[in-house]
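PT: before anyone asks, these are the final sequences, not the draft ones from last week. 738 residues across everything. Please model them as a single complex and drop the result in this thread when it's through.
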Amino acid sequence: MYRYDDIDRAMVKARVAQFRDQTNRWQAGELSDEEFRPLRLQNGLYMQRHAPMLRIAVPYAMISSAQLRVLGAIAREEDKGYAHFTTRHNLQYNWIPMARVPDVLERLAEVEMHAIQTSGNCIRNVTSDQFAGIAPDEVVDTRPLAEIIRQWSTFHPEFAFLPRKFKIAVHGAERDRAVVQVHDIGLHLYRDDQGEILARVWVGGGLGRTPILGEVIHEALPWRHLLSYMEAIIRVYNLEGRRDNPYKARIKILVKALGIEEFRRKVDAEWADLKDGPATITDAELARVSSYFVDPAYAQLPETDAVYDERLKSDKAFARWVQQNVHPHRVPGYRAVTLSLKQKGIAPGDITDTQMEAVADLADAYSFGEVRSSHEQNLILSDVELRKLPELFDKAKALKLASSTVGLLTDIICCPGGDFCDLANAKSIPIAQAIMERFDDLDYLHDIGELDLNISGCMNACGHHHVGHIGVLGVDKNDEEWYQVTIGGRQGNDTRLGKVIGPSFAAADMPDVVTKLLETYVSLREPEERFVDTVVRVGIDPFKTSVYGGKLNRKKEAANG
Amino acid sequence: MAEILKNGQVHNDNWQVLRPEAEADLATVNLPAGQWLIPFALWQVQCAALKSRSDIGVWLSPNDDLTEVAKHFSQWPLVAIDFPKFTDGRGYSIAWRIRNHYKYKGELRAIGNVLVDQLFFMLRVGFDTLALDPSVVVATAERNLAPFPDTYQGSTDNPEPLFRRLDRTGAAQGGAH
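LR: through. Structure below.
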């Protein structure tokens, strides 16, 4: 994992001092609310429904056990004893008073953490594959270049006041686990015949009000040009992106308006001034940063273990957990383990202070002291010995972190919604909880199989509803909360946006709607066919018929549904 | 008399920013002697008459066409970029382009809605003077000129990113874990 040197440390400390000064000036009236707003947002601080919300950066998903302990202690001492993992690796606190934020940031700086650029119209925290460095299908470990991108984007003088937020995601495996096509810039790192790292560069993807998949702007960009090429893209965007309407201000709207050919022409013209210039990444820098991501001291282990095999045969609950929550590892005898943050009665992604500290202990005991956070809002221990899985399962279960539902219906991605978020049109957490309540039969969940259910409380789509196999979007109609349902969306290499099945539903109907969708799937599916594949094969009509043909209490409403 | 930041200090300055009414007939705007910063649109209209004057500089709106602007750089003692709103960040990229693509070497000033908290970024992208709002507390401005001890990425002030300026190998405390 990357460690700060004196410069990194001094930069983060200087940011804390700067923010403390800004907070003081705001409190003294020297900065207006309007002037303070972008400054606090660039430090992850939102004014929310009940209290401020502070979003801490977890760069490309990596957290150390020492960091997690401090995050837990802050949750206990400064918040209400819990925090929330977001859909972009980050961690959010909901109840820290504004005046305490500088001190909290100072405490985070001690463990090389910060809230820099976790919000605001700037380059946001770079996201990646939670299995980077360990996935068997990985071609390029994304972490060194992600760290180089993190440093480059930190306090970038030219790109702190862009038309809108700007998100970069990077993956380097055969299977895209970072949903790069729904990012402002998505990078897929791969290798040419000589082993040289190249990037396929996607631009103009994004969810939100106008969901659009990115388009390829460069098929084979050599890694050393990544920074200069992205600088060219973002400069064109900064100068030409719309600023008249925040809903039309993302780069996706510019790319659509110009067309990818014209946008590429402009970027190439801009890049002509930059290519091979000083922003070109050096071999030495890649080597330096890569040196932080060398393998931990893996043991030489057999690929099998008798105790593990025995438990697998004798304990159905363990076998299920292994099937859903344990993932392959490129090193023999090792596995990655997802600790599920999806428990009945708890908001998806929420974790308590003591759970954080316990996960830190598990990471120290089983996974070289490192934890990853996934955009599915779970935590991952990336380097667990196969033979230790039974004892880890027992411990995780005792901590209520072992729901064997990863990738299943109740592994719901869910934004904080109207319970917390000021932007939300509707609550999202109660919908997730009602669905988790309804579908708590593991046999049934496993029979239904892989199913991504994503819920957003508004158009901003933090819950990635567009790419859920089933997507739920909270909408406001005449001050009432309604829920629009899409099906057929998916993430990964074949990312697609879901289709709306029809008029929206009342909150209380949502579990029934999901039941009907699943019944339709079960009646139509072919062997081994996933829900989303059935939708693709038969189309949305049979689902529509079953959902709307019944006696659901749906609102009579205008055709715009 | 306005206050500007230059070389890290506050100076008095005689350049007056002329902002004609939207419906003004630019051909008839009269410019008496004195240091005037005029909109590029006005320069275009009165270019022939103003060319010989050394007391006329131009301010650019983010909407001005830089390829047109660039034809005139040599005729102005001062170029300013207007920030209609402090959240409108186009001026940063315009400054970068003027310095690095068009190679303008003269004085480049930020005017308009500029926050103290943005001065550092402005100095980095290529501005050398910054017009301060009269409400700005000078001590606050001076304190914010260099909020960070170093910079990761290159820009106009220093095109070399940190990784080209310094060998950071092995500098982390504790090393990899």
